[in-house]
Design goal:
The chain is an alpha/beta fold. The protein is built from 11 helices and 12 strands.
């Protein structure tokens, strides 16, 4: 792989010009502390992230696993609305088949009102069939249930009334007493590296986040932007379809004073995190996600960005040099990492890495007044 210094940052055959944002993705895995400590520390980290200028804070949703001690994103996000004032917040993603659609819509509306219109609405069907089963959801029909739930909620938010009949959800006919502050509903987000879902997300102007996967995510990004340019703006799902959406990379990030220190920290904390990721899968003799959180695979694939400030900037510039991305959302607190280490990670990310990336990328990332890609 070439270094950042060897990359050609001149305009390729087609460059999409846009501004760039920086966020954080957070999992509430148990580590070695107590659930109370995990939640307290995440709240403190989120407050500090806003103070340091982070644009978005997205959390995950998992059930029946030490991969998360906060199975309800809305509980955490509600607390966060009272501790932050500027940073956008949300789940990436809500596992839609696990919810009663009316209940979820009402809670989303409350959080958007509490946050004064700062909620991001991440949507998905859930990655783990075992977690879905814990909640009484048949994994074999989770996709159509997800699709129907998303349609029911977005339509209800748009019209102000649930009036739904479908093959998977119960019949619903009820007026919503409260709607989100953002109209018709908060911006939609989706997490995947799949080309098929990239086309759907682009056609609907849904913000899209995925992992680098040794450059394979570029295919998804290219598909996304092609579909976005060709979309029918009248039919697009996302409420912000008239603006440039976010397409971003979601690496695991560890920054330290030396390469050796950074790699040792990553291997230690990621090994613990992987134990949480694969636990329920291995209990069912299922090894399909073994590579997802494997530390060696993460380093080789670029899904983990680990090193000194300079080497982390170099690695990220290589991934951003395609011009297909305008968002970065790393995971900076995971496994058995303690709060002090995660805070140091955040400080180096926000105070050293982000300014350097902006300086390097400003030559081809701008904010045209029309907000339309060239």
């Amino acid at each position: 792989m070439s270094t950042a210094a060897e990359q050609d940052y001149s305009r390729p055959h087609e460059r999409i010009y846009m501004d760039i944002e920086f966020g954080i993705f957070d999992s509430f895995d148990l580590g070695t502390g107590t659930p109370e400590a995990v939640l307290d520390d995440r709240l403190k980290l989120a407050v500090e992230a806003e103070r340091l200028g982070i644009d978005r804070y997205h959390v995950t949703e998992h059930h029946g696993t030490p991969l998360s001690v906060c199975p309800s994103p809305n509980i955490f996000l509600s607390a966060l609305t009272q501790r932050t004032t500027r940073m956008r917040i949300g789940a990436l993603v809500y596992v839609l088949p696990a919810y009663d659609p009316v209940r979820l819509a009402e809670e989303l509306a409350v959080i958007d009102q509490l946050s004064h219109g700062r909620l991001d609405f991440g949507v998905g069907r859930g990655v783990s069939p075992y977690e879905l089963k814990y909640l009484g959801v048949d994994p074999d029909i989770s996709l159509p249930v997800y699709v129907e739930t998303l349609a029911a909620i977005t339509t209800a938010f748009t019209t102000g009334r649930f009036n739904h009949r479908g093959p998977h959800l119960r019949d619903i006919d009820v007026e919503l007493p409260m709607l989100p502050r953002q109209r018709p509903y908060p911006p939609l987000w989706y997490a995947s590296s799949n080309i098929a879902t990239a086309e759907w997300a682009g056609s609907n102007a849904v913000n899209f986040v995925g992992r680098w996967n040794d450059g394979e995510f570029l295919k998804g990004a290219e598909t996304y932007w092609s579909a976005w340019k060709s979309r029918d703006t009248e039919l697009a799902l996302n409420a912000s379809s008239d603006t440039v959406p976010r397409v971003g990379i979601n690496p695991t990030l560890v920054i330290a004073g030396t390469e050796e220190e950074a790699n040792a920290l990553f291997m230690r904390h990621q090994t613990r995190f992987r134990e949480h990721v694969v636990l329920r899968w291995h209990e069912n003799d299922d090894h399909r996600v073994d590579n997802f959180a494997d530390p060696v695979f993460g380093l080789k694939s670029g899904n983990a960005v680990v090193g000194t400030v300079d080497s982390v900037i170099e690695q990220l510039l290589i991934q951003f040099s395609s011009g297909m991305f305008n968002y970065l959302e790393p995971m900076i607190y995971f496994g058995d990492m303690d709060f002090a280490a995660s805070l140091r990670n955040l400080e180096l990310y926000s105070q050293e890495v982000i300014p350097a990336l902006k300086a390097h990328l400003q030559s081809y990332l701008s904010v045209p007044s029309s907000r339309t890609p060239a």
